[in-house]
Amino acid sequence: MTRKIIHVDMDAFFASVEQRDAPDLRGKPVAVGGSGGRGVVAAASYEARRFGVRSAMPSVTALRRCPDLVFVRPRFNVYRAVSRQIRDIFEEYTPLVEPLSLDEAYLDVTANQRGLPSATATAEEIRARILADTGLTASAGVSYNKLLAKLASDVNKPNGQCVITPAAGPGFVAALAIGRFHGVGPRTAEKMHALGIHTGADLARWSLADLVARFGKAGAWYHAIARAEDDRAVTPDRPRKSYSSETTFAADLLNPEEIEAGVMRMAADVADWVRRTGATGRTVTLKARFADFATVTRSRTLGLPIGADAVAPLAVELVRTLYPPRAGIRLLGVTLSAFERKAEDAENQMAFEL
Question: Which parts of the sequence belong to the UmuC domain (predicted)?
Answer without folding.
Answer: 5-185
